[in-house]
Amino acid sequence: MRIVVDMIRGQKVNKALGILKYEPKVGARHVEKLLLSAIANWQNKNEDVKLEDADLYVKTVTVDGGSSLKRLRPAPQGRGHRILKRSNHITLVVASATAPTIITE
């Protein structure tokens, strides 16, 4: 996930959406959906400003560790091996180059 996020940090929103659309990694779809949500939230907060005139860019993106699901897999001689199914939390900040408005998703 961090590899995908590093590609769009600091990019213009249109370029970031293009990068995420054609990136084959699984995390790119989740980040693309999050970016579209952040853009929609920015539009709701700033209804008087057109999206094309705002010149939006991805200000900061962070990926932090989330909760882990703990599972057991059968192992030889009646043992069990622990499997951790990890998740993460993504924080995405979209800002306008013309206005100081910041939306956190």
UniProtKB/TrEMBL annotation:
Part of the 50S ribosomal subunit. GO terms for cellular component: cytosolic large ribosomal subunit. It comes from the Bacteria. GO terms for molecular function: rRNA binding; structural constituent of ribosome. The keyword Hydrolase does not apply. Keywords: Ribonucleoprotein, Ribosomal protein, RNA-binding, rRNA-binding. Belongs to the universal ribosomal protein uL22 family. This is 50S ribosomal protein L22. This protein binds specifically to 23S rRNA; its binding is stimulated by other ribosomal proteins, e.g., L4, L17, and L20. It is important during the early stages of 50S assembly. It makes multiple contacts with different domains of the 23S rRNA in the assembled 50S subunit and ribosome. One of its GO terms (biological process) is translation.
